[in-house]
Write a structure and sequence with these properties.
Length: 398
């Protein structure tokens, strides 16, 4: 009789399975233990004992093996020829309830939580998050790993090592040593909130951290400088004529300023086959954002429709590499005598500025038109000017 443990892949995780072999028959059954593949030593039939959790799992597997052997010996003593099914049935009826850590605290290691976060985000990739967001988690983890290495905290240490002092040191290191901006340091803070919340969920015996990252205040962030064209500048720029590659770049910029799409979504909109027309005669292109994979409707203005008509279809809209596009935009700005440097982001910010201050579009609707999941992000693209506020107050009070 042989007992073997092996990994079986499911959609969401790897599960340790038990294989009982007897009388030239085999039977596979799940142990219910979820494994991190990188920690499983297949040749040894056990977990790499680098953490308390892995040691606990190995103890459980040893107990299962012992209980299976006991069931086999009992059946043999009864002068029966035990099949795998008989052994499993006897094991299930007689198995020992094993809990060697009933009165102890067991928490995951730093590395285990890191791997779990990446696994969860990989499952969301293409559905809830885009490739850029997924890659950002790798970069955040790389910074944490680098800091822990310098602090001589191994990744196989349990998460209790990440106390408040360690986290404050990490955020200070990001600012003072690495020279990162406050907004980027705050992204690491958000990551650590997710990290330690996941560590709490993975712990045993209701163990919880006695502090949370939210106790550490956000670093102050200055209001972002929003570089955009005013309505008057944009209207003048829109009517200017260019030739050759500058004409195509001009059309790309105007299309993005009319629709508010990100340059990555501009590329995706070229794949839209059908333009929808609603009951009010408005034209729309439905698509998913490249970054968040959120579905949103792009409103096509008369100017945007004229550009589509000029090139024949959405699929034939001009396109070029980001660097080449931005290089041409700089030249375009000089030729147009603009007092700002044109970039791919200026078109999107121009759209936001004009909608908020010229068309008086509500903030939440402007966010929807831009494909944003929340109007909290609007502040990065545009603000309601004091003159706009004054005009609205005049209508209400005078």
């Amino acid at each position: 009789m042989k007992v073997l443990f092996w990994l079986r892949s499911r959609k969401t995780q790897k599960i340790v399975h038990l294989r009982i072999t007897a009388l030239d028959e085999s039977l596979n059954v799940s142990t219910g233990i979820a494994a991190i593949p990188e920690h499983w030593l297949g040749s040894d039939n056990l977990f790499n004992p680098i953490s308390k959790i892995n040691i606990e799992y190995n103890n459980q597997l040893s107990q299962i093996r012992a209980d299976i052997l006991r069931a086999y010996n009992d059946l043999t003593a009864e002068r029966r020829n035990p099949t795998p099914g008989m052994i499993l049935e006897r094991y299930q009826n007689n198995k020992v309830s094993y809990n060697p850590i009933a009165n102890t605290i067991l928490v995951p290691t730093i590395e285990e939580v890191m791997l779990t976060i990446i696994k969860n985000k990989r499952q969301q990739l293409g559905k809830e998050i885009g490739k850029a967001t997924f890659q950002r988690y790798f970069r955040l983890q790389k910074r944490l790993s680098e800091y822990l290495k310098e602090s001589k905290i191994p990744l196989y240490s349990d998460v209790t090592k990440l106390n408040e002092a360690t986290m404050k040191g990490f955020f200070g290191w990001l600012s003072d040593v690495k020279g990162y901006s406050n907004p980027y340091v705050n992204k690491h803070r958000d990551y650590m909130i997710l990290f330690l919340e996941l560590a709490n969920k993975a712990s045993r015996n209701d163990w919880k951290l006695d502090w949370i990252v939210r106790d550490i205040p956000l670093l102050s962030v200055e209001e972002p400088e929003i570089v955009k064209l005013t309505f008057e500048q944009y209207e003048k720029f829109k009517e200017q004529k260019f030739i050759g590659s500058l004409e195509r770049v001009h059309d790309m910029f105007v299309f993005m300023a009319e629709t508010g799409v990100h340059i990555a979504d501009y590329r995706r909109i070229r794949a839209v086959k059908v333009i929808d027309i609603d009951d009010n005669g408005n034209s729309w292109a439905s698509m998913k954002r490249e970054k968040s994979k959120v579905k949103f409707d792009v409103y096509l203005t008369k100017t945007a429709l004229s550009i589509i008509e000029k090139y024949g279809s959405l699929a034939k809209l001009p396109i070029m590499a980001d660097q080449k596009y931005n290089d041409h935009l700089k030249l375009l700005g000089i030729r147009a005598n603009l007092d700002i440097e044109l970039t791919s982001k200026v078109a999107r910010k121009t759209f936001c500025h004009i909608h908020l201050n010229k068309h008086k579009t509500r903030t939440d609707i402007t966010a929807k038109l831009m494909g944003l999941t929340s109007d909290r992000c609007i502040k990065h693209y545009g603000t309601i000017m004091r003159d706009t506020i004054g005009e609205e107050l005049m209508k209400k009070y005078i």
